[in-house]
Amino acid sequence: MKDKEIVYNEAKFYQIGLFSLNNAATNLYFALMGYVSYYANSVIGFSVVLISMLLTAMNVFDGITDPLAGFLLDKTKGKFGKFRPFMLLGNGIMAISTLLLFGTLEYVPKALQIPYFILIYAAFVLGYTFQTVVGKSGQAVITNNPEKRPLSTYFDSVFIMAAYGGSVLLVANYLVPKYGGYTNIELYHEYMIWVIVISGLCTIGAIIGIWDKDKVENYKHYETQKVKIRDYFEILKNNKQICMLILAACTNKFAATVYGHATVGVMLYGILMQNYGVAGLIGVVTAIPTLFVVSAGIKVAQNMGQKKALVLFTYLGIAFQIMMIFVLLAPNVNTISFNIHKINAITVVFVGIYVLLNGCKSITNNMVVPMIADCSDYEEYRSGKFVPGLMGALFSFVDKIFAALGTAFVGLVMLVIGYNHRFPQVEDTLTPTIKWTTIFLYCVVPAAGWICSLIFMHFYKLDKKTMKKIAHTLGKRKGERNE
């Protein structure tokens, strides 16, 4: 089948790019909440076990709210579209709850701090769910062109690297030196203001990006469609593609939550390397080279399809992760430095492998988002139902459950190695236990997650050829409805 025979829902370059800012907006908050365990432990006084249990429970609650948000999104038919209201409302709720969480918890009586924390964090979760469900489902209306859809992976990689890299740079190289560590509440006060402002601007950009696609007239074909709760179960039963994608992505998500945990970063850069400033600078130093790797991944996806690109870079990620183990086992790993006068061979090797590894991580983590849109198109092709909200919510639900498990796993490991009352700090002494635990969490767990992901991707059938067939069929159906 030739592309000229297919009528695609096309999108302009800027629309794809701006809409990806929605993921940047939510990931800025996600990065901030990665430090909430340090805030609750070091400032408020919650124990490691308590805060780990609370965050795990709240992350599970986060997942449970996704089906409701997806259902509401698919039922929404207002004059402001389906997606824009959820983006704006979600970001507003996150901003308010963040201000309350980091700005008022210290003034609450001790006896009420735990229920207050739960209440405010639950509100944050609702806002986060509203905006993230758009990121998982909005791609379905942006474009269905299999050569343009992978571009969202490139923009997501750029903006998420900027969100995470910028957050770590801000914390490690500015806030920690300025405020003397994680025990100073002023660090969190300033950090939250940065996040609220920048995330708000990103949300505005994302709304502009989806504006022309998210209009009432674009959904007129689906006005008679009735979405019911039982559709979730019908989709899980009959849409095997979304099930395989969910399982493949969520084992990866578990691994990403573990290696990206703030505690693991402190152990890796602050204790193992004895230079926490590297944590902030590494993202800046490797940003452009990493984007070259991501660009190669996008090119593969455009030529061979998203499935083949995901599988290829998962294999490569495992290989580079194994190489990283040997780098971290080097006796002079604590000499890694970005000081121009102290750069040595191990610094060069570490940076080189980090670039390749981080590029693979960006591709495997972000490629799944446009692949959810593929599954949404497949569901419309299979059942005739256009339910991007349900599809995104199903994915996000399991995704967040695995993220919760990843958070709990890190807390459990800390408990096992003796950190019962506090999390590791950058000034802690390196011990064999900390060294091997760091390597296990940063290297071994991700490799294991990717291996599981490859097993599930073997059963995922939506390759480039299949997606062209689906786009052709859906285009014919739309043309018939317009006659």
Write the layout of secondary structure elements.
Blueprint: H1 13-19, H2 21-33, H3 36-44, H4 48-75, H5 84-104, H6 110-137, H7 139-142, H8 151-179, H9 185-210, H10 230-238, H11 240-259, H12 262-272, H13 277-304, H14 306-328, H15 345-366, H16 368-383, H17 388-416, H18 432-457, H19 464-482
Helix pairs in contact: 1-9, 2-6, 2-8, 2-9, 4-6, 4-17, 5-6, 5-9, 6-17, 8-9, 8-13, 11-16, 11-17, 11-18, 12-18, 13-14, 13-15, 14-15, 14-18, 16-17, 16-19
Provide the CATH architecture: Up-down Bundle
Question: What characterizes the major β-sheet?
Answer: none
Strand count: 0
Any low-confidence stretches, pLDDT <50, length ≥5? none
Counting DSSP H or I runs of 4 or more residues, the number of helices is 19
What integer is the average pLDDT? 88
CATH-level-4 superfamily name: MFS general substrate transporter like domains
The general outline is globular
**Can you tell me the CATH topology?**
Growth Hormone, Chain: A
The total number of structural domains is 1
Which range does the strand content fall in? Answer: under 5%
Fraction of helical residues: over 70%
The H/E string reads HHHHHHHHHHHHHHHHHHH
| Main structural class | mainly alpha
Rg is 22 Å
